[in-house]
Structure formats: structure tokens, C-alpha cells
Write a structure and sequence with these properties.
heterodimer, A: 6-stranded mixed beta sheet, 12 strands, globular, B: 114 residues, mainly beta, 4-stranded antiparallel beta sheet, 11 strands, 0% helix
């Protein structure tokens, strides 16, 4: 079945450093891909999405490009802030069936 | 603003007790979902419902029950049969007929054992 694999954390960066969180997927069909962010004690918020190959999703300085040839959707940000500290989840939907598949999550801590 | 409301934010359960977690949405979404999240782990699907009066088991349905009598509401009951209920519970919804659309989440309920 469909699955998502994302890099294990935790990831610790200094403020203004560059961020990349790797995400690869296995899916049949043509899924949509998503990144969610979870702040402490809260639910998941949709950060960005891409619905077809070569689409780039972007929001709040974060970007991710749907790469069908490498089955990847890596999350990037050029300069992180302390307020970006959270857990980030990669997810897909619309491959095999209607299920949403989540990665295990990557915890990011940004230090001043 | 449209959204998903979960209540209560914190809930405590005594041994042998059933407790019910509330989830209400005003997004006019057909599909609703319940997930369990344990510390440092990802999401596991408990139950989902694609339409009123219908629901399906997810990956970890044992010890849980749900109902879907109204489109807006999808309560989750954690029964006494669930031996390890301490977790963070998340409710979500989506437009069911478009399978590539994202799910939208509530702010969660944290359940603990007294």
C-alpha cells in the first residue's frame, strides 16, 4: 500500500540556518502531497500542498516540490526562526484508495 | 470562521469507565476521522466516516466506538476495553468526494488515566 517515509529527528538548528526535511513516498496512481505542522499541544495545521508532478507548494517561507521521478517532497526553508520550532509531518492522499498516509513526523528545534 | 472543534481539551478517565470525546465541524465536510497520537510518534487511524450513518474501522479500532448521526458531529467513545488509552486524540475532516484534498484537524483532546 501507499506509504510515506520522512527523515528521523530531532533536528536542531540555529536561527537563520537553512532547513531541509526529507520526505519520500510510495504510491500507486497520482497522489497529492502535503506538509503539516504541529505546534506543542495543538492539532495539525496544513502548511503547504502540491497536487501534481513538478508543482511547488509554498507558505510562510517554506517550500516543497513534487518530484515524481524521485518520489520525493522535501520541505525547505532558507532561514528558520525560533517560532518554526514544531513537529512536521509529510503526508499523501489519493494514491491507492482514499486514505491519508502520514510520515512519522520530524521534530525541529530552532535555537536563538 | 469554519473549523473543527474538539472538546474537552483535557480529559481524565477512571479505571473501568467509558469516556466520550466530542468533535464538531462546520466546514460542511462529508468525511470525518479520528486519530491517536502517542508521544514522539505519528498518527494512527482509529475510525473514519465517509457519510452520515456509516463508519469504518481504521488500523487501531479495538477498544473504541463511534457514531455519525449528524454530518457535523463524530464523537469517539473510549471504552474500558481500551487498556492503554492515555494519548492525544485528533479529529479531522475532509471533502470526501475529492480524494486528493487535505484533511483539516481540530486542536485535539489529551486523555489521561487517573
Amino acid at each position: 500500500g501507499d506509504s510515506v517515509t520522512q527523515m528521523e529527528g530531532p533536528v536542531t538548528l540555529s536561527e537563520e540556518a537553512c532547513l531541509t526535511i526529507n520526505c519520500t513516498y510510495t504510491a500507486t496512481g497520482y497522489p497529492s502531497l502535503f506538509w503539516y505542522v504541529q505546534y506543542p499541544g495543538e492539532g495539525l495545521q496544513l502548511l503547504l500542498k502540491a497536487t501534481k508532478a513538478d508543482d511547488k507548494g509554498s507558505n510562510k517561507g517554506f517550500e516543497a516540490t513534487y518530484r515524481k521521478e524521485t518520489t520525493s517532497f522535501h520541505l525547505e526553508k532558507g532561514s528558520v526562526q525560533v517560532s518554526d520550532s514544531a513537529v512536521y509531518f509529510c503526508a499523501l492522499r489519493g494514491g491507492q484508495g482514499n486514505d491519508m498516509r502520514f510520515g512519522a513526523g520530524t521534530r525541529l528545534t530552532v535555537k536563538p | 470562521d469554519g473549523g473543527i472543534t474538539q472538546s474537552p481539551k483535557y480529559l481524565f478517565r477512571k479505571e473501568g469507565q467509558n469516556v466520550t470525546l466530542s468533535c464538531e465541524q462546520n466546514l460542511n465536510h462529508d468525511a470525518m476521522y479520528w486519530y491517536r497520537q502517542d508521544p514522539g510518534q505519528g498518527l494512527r487511524l482509529i475510525y473514519y466516516s465517509q457519510i452520515v450513518n456509516d463508519f469504518q474501522k481504521g488500523d487501531i479500532a479495538e477498544g473504541y466506538s463511534v457514531s455519525r448521526e449528524k454530518k457535523e458531529s463524530f464523537p469517539l467513545t473510549v471504552t474500558s476495553a481500551q487498556k492503554n488509552p492515555t494519548a492525544f486524540y485528533l479529529c479531522a475532516s475532509s471533502i470526501a468526494e475529492y480524494s486528493n484534498q487535505p484533511q483539516h484537524f481540530g486542536d485535539g483532546t489529551r486523555l489521561s488515566i487517573l
